[in-house]
Write a structure and sequence with these properties.
By secondary structure, this protein is of the alpha+beta class. It is about 25% helix and about 25% strand. It has a single domain, classed as Roll (Archaeosine Trna-guanine Transglycosylase, Chain: A, domain 4).
C-alpha cells in the first residue's frame, strides 16, 4: 500500500508510451519496460514511469491508468529481452531495460479525448496528482527552470552532459520544449492539416 500522497509531489516522472497490451503485461508481471537507445529520452533515471496507453487498448485507449516506480536501468539488446522474436528486424539493436516496481493503478485515469502523436515527456508528481487530462501534465512556464535543474542533476554523471556544459543551468528553450513534450501535446489539441493515425513506434 502506497503512503499518501502518491506519487510524492517532488518526484520526477517520465510519461512513456505503451502501444501493445503485451508490453503492459510485461511491465506488470516481469517488472520491466524497454526503450530503443536510438529514440531514448535524455534522462532515464527518473522516479516513476506513467504509462500512456495508445489506440491498441481499445476502450482503454488514450489515457494513463498506471504508474510504476523506477528501480534502475541497463543497456541490453532486444533479443535478450524478447527471446521469442529472434527474427525481428530490431533484434540486435540496443535497448534500455528499465526495471520497475509494482504497477499502481491511479485513482482516476488521466484522459485525452483528442489525440495527436505523443512521445516521451517529463512531468512532476505534483502535476500528476491533480491532473484530469494529459495536457494538465505539461509543466507551466514558472516551473520549467526548476524541472530543468532537476533533469540536469540527473544528468550530472553522464559524460555527454558534464556540469560545466551550461554554466548557471542556462535553459535552452528548444531542448526544454523537447524534454517537456510541449510541441507534441499542443499539437494534440490543435491538430494541423494532414493529421493521421497516432504514431508511437519507439517501443517496437
Amino acid at each position: 500500500m502506497m503512503e499518501p500522497p502518491f506519487p510524492p509531489p517532488a518526484s520526477l516522472i517520465l510519461v512513456a508510451v505503451i502501444n501493445d497490451p503485451r508490453d503492459l503485461e510485461i511491465a506488470r508481471l516481469l517488472g520491466w519496460y524497454r526503450i530503443p537507445l536510438r529514440s531514448a529520452p535524455r534522462v532515464i533515471a527518473v522516479d516513476y514511469l506513467a504509462l500512456y496507453q495508445t489506440a491498441a487498448f481499445g476502450e482503454a485507449k488514450w489515457r494513463i491508468e498506471y504508474l510504476a516506480p523506477v528501480r534502475g536501468h541497463e543497456l541490453t539488446t532486444r533479443i535478450e529481452l524478447l527471446q521469442d522474436e529472434p527474427d525481428h528486424p530490431h533484434a540486435r539493436k540496443e535497448y534500455y531495460k528499465v526495471q520497475l516496481g509494482p504497477l499502481v493503478r491511479l485513482a482516476r485515469p488521466i484522459l485525452t479525448q483528442r489525440w495527436r502523436r505523443v512521445t516521451f515527456f517529463y512531468t512532476t508528481g505534483e502535476l500528476l496528482l491533480r491532473a484530469v487530462s494529459l495536457h494538465d501534465l505539461i509543466v507551466p512556464s514558472e516551473g520549467r527552470e526548476q524541472l530543468w535543474r532537476a533533469l540536469r542533476e540527473r544528468l550530472s554523471g553522464a559524460e555527454q552532459y558534464a556540469a560545466d556544459d551550461a554554466p548557471g543551468f542556462e535553459i535552452d528553450p528548444a531542448l526544454l520544449a523537447s524534454l517537456l513534450g510541449i510541441k507534441e501535446l499542443e499539437a494534440e489539441y490543435h491538430p494541423g492539416p494532414g493529421a493521421g493515425p497516432e504514431s508511437n513506434r519507439h517501443q517496437r
